[in-house]
What does this fold into?
Amino acid sequence: MSDSWRIDETYIKVKGRWANYYRAVDNFGNVNYFYLILNRDEAAEKDFLNKV
It folds into this structure.
């Protein structure tokens, strides 16, 4: 993982339900970590940032 990275968020449909898909991408375009949650809330976002 390089020193420079960003977080990307999008919505995807999983088995008919919408889910939030977060991913940490470095400046080379490599996905270093991803997180899929069905309910968007502040606690889930903080959990993702702590893991990254």
User: Anything to note?
Assistant: The beta strands are 5-14, 17-26, 31-37.
